[in-house]
Design goal:
32% of the residues lie in helices and 17% in strands. It is an alpha+beta fold. The longest helix has 30 residues, at 335-364. The termini are far apart.
Length: 562
């Protein structure tokens, strides 16, 4: 093989100049607190390449990210998402190796007990302990079924099912009783449509014996889906949970509408046609009929984009929620009512798993009686973990939404312009929502202390909740709020003000509709429910009922949102 030519004198000179040229300084944006006396947090802008309309950054302060570094670790056990890495870079973060402990954010496949033991109080990771109770299809059905036994039809949010092979006899009897029904069998821990089968009630002995050898769930198949131009579709709804106690839930304003690529038929002869009955992108992307959504690299304001043309033909196999809203408007369907039902479904599903997730958290912290008050060995606490879920929802012809499954690791890959815009914006909104504090040395900043509520033991929190329940009115209950409770309120107001395209769905002014579903409403949940029922953030405005607020609270200085 021929050796490469040695560098010329000009090339050597160019390299020398490059080495002497000062490195470009990394900049970051800080979002000042909307309250007096509280420090700023990092603001993560949308990348120019994603095509999203930039968030409000008028109040942001640009600083040099010099001195102490903020670092993140993107685990090699999970797909390396450009959306995460690019947004982190814009926020002033530096990547570190998986074997490093010098991270502020860990983006991984799951949170294990070793992670909780080694986390410091300032570190965050992207999975809640116990999320498998949502992500595993058998466990999710078991928890929702438990709620149905208590609350009946109020938890009729997912198709009824049978966990196999344990419930094989019961499933066989139900098929005998309802021979006209179709069923969908799903393996418990798979994703991307792998292993899913749509079956008639008349399952052959061979198929039944095969299913008896596997762990899965057989659910009633929703055979009357809402169709668009004859095609079945489902919704990928992005749900963000910043903590489980207090439970704080957001739904992204954008998501994905995923179409099957063959027109729907109820005929039993079509049940093996996966590209007709399954809407998973992984199933349909290889179909010759799949049409990529070009998106134009911009957000859709009206009936532009990929809606059916005048002849009724679907123009893309994946839509945004904005395109779905435009279609609903043209078809005379109520988008807001439908999304309201979906948001209710989301909150109910999360409440159904709260007891087991609380137990798992305390077990990970080796303090099983402490519940959410448990702490890790180095300071991990109830706010150390957050989650971005992918709720898959099907709408039937009667406009009722059905929860199909919950993805604990929803794909953030940017396979199209549409995906890139929606997912990059989502990641930036999530990181801004979390409220990362800049390190000392970036600017002359007031340091943020850990929330005082973290110092209260479980028995003290329980006693406070019992005392609050005895109050005759909401106003009397609010009068019992102390420094820790009001700090929880102020942080709640600040967090929602930097939520970007994420809509708070719990707690809100209507939190009481859901609080009765908790196994036991915690003190933290009570505090925020009472605050929101009495007016929420509006209490801090000039027109709010400021008499309910103690005079020593920090003054709200801005009504800006980002």
């Amino acid at each position: 093989a021929r050796l490469p030519a040695p560098p010329t004198s000009d090339e050597l000179l160019t390299e020398a100049v490059e080495e002497q040229r000062p490195r470009q300084k990394r900049l970051a944006l800080l979002w000042p607190s909307i309250f007096d006396g509280r420090g700023p947090v990092l603001l993560f802008p949308y990348t120019a390449a994603c095509g999203a309309r930039q968030r409000n950054i008028e109040r942001a302060i640009e600083v040099e990210a010099e001195g102490p570094r903020l670092c993140y670790c993107h685990s090699e056990r999970v797909h390396q998402y450009n959306a995460v890495k690019n947004v982190m870079r814009l926020g002033g973060f530096h990547p570190v190796r998986p074997d490093s402990a010098q991270w502020t954010l860990l983006w991984s496949k799951q949170t294990v007990s070793d992670t909780v033991h080694c986390m410091q109080s300032s570190q965050r990771t992207n999975h809640l302990v116990g999320s498998r109770h949502l992500g595993r299809k058998d466990l999710l059905w078991r928890h929702i079924l438990n709620m149905q036994r208590v609350y009946g039809d109020e938890f009729d949010i997912t198709p009824p099912g049978y966990i196999l092979p344990r419930a094989m006899d019961s499933w066989r009897e139900e098929r005998r009783r309802r021979p006209e029904k179709f069923w969908i069998w799903k393996p418990c821990g798979q994703s991307c449509g792998r292993g899913i089968r749509v079956l008639p009630s008349g399952v052959s002995e061979k198929d039944e014996e095969e299913l008896r050898q596997k762990k899965g769930i057989a659910q009633e198949y929703v055979s009357n889906p809402l169709l668009i131009d004859g095609y079945k579709f489902d919704l990928r709804v992005y749900v963000v949970v910043t903590s489980m106690d207090p439970l704080k839930v957001y739904v992204n304003d954008e998501g994905l509408v995923r179409f099957a690529t063959e027109r729907y038929s109820e005929s039993a002869e079509t049940l093996d046609t996966r590209t007709m009955h399954l809407t998973n992108y992984s199933v349909n992307k290889a179909s010759p009929a799949f049409v990529q959504n070009q998106d134009g690299g911009r957000e859709v304001d009206s009936d532009e984009g990929s809606l059916p043309d005048e002849d009724g033909g679907i123009q893309a196999s994946k839509w945004s929620f904005a395109e779905l809203r435009a279609y609903f408007d043209r078809a005379g369907l109520d988008y807001e009512l439908t999304m309201g039902r979906i948001k209710s479904l989301v909150v109910k599903a999360l409440i159904s798993v709260e007891p087991v997730m609380r137990s798992d958290w305390a077990r990970f912290c080796k303090d099983e009686g402490a519940g959410w008050a448990a702490r890790g060995r180095l300071g991990a606490h109830r706010f150390s973990c957050f989650e971005v879920y992918g709720f898959d929802v099907l709408i039937d012809a009667g406009m009722k939404p059905w929860l199909l499954e919950v993805n604990v690791c929803p794909s953030l890959s940017s396979g199209s312009r549409l995906d890139k815009r929606i997912k990059t914006k989502l990641v930036a909104d999530v990181f801004t929502l979390l409220g990362f504090a800049p390190p000392p040395g970036w600017a002359a900043l007031r340091h943020r202390e850990p929330p005082a509520i973290l110092e209260l033991p479980a028995d003290e929190l329980e006693a406070r909740a019992e005392a609050m329940e005895e109050c005759g009115t909401l106003e009397e209950a609010m009068a019992t709020f102390d420094d820790a409770a009001w700090e929880l309120v102020v942080e709640d107001v600040e967090e929602e003000a930097r939520s970007g395209g994420l809509e708070r769905v719990f707690p809100t002014a209507h939190a009481a509709e859901f609080s009765r579903f908790f196994e036991a409403e915690s003190y933290c949940n009570m505090v925020l429910r009472i605050f929101h029922e009495l007016g929420g953030p509006a209490l801090f405005s000039r027109t709010g009922n400021s008499e309910l607020l103690p005079p020593w609270l920090p003054r709200r200085t801005s009504s800006s949102r980002t």
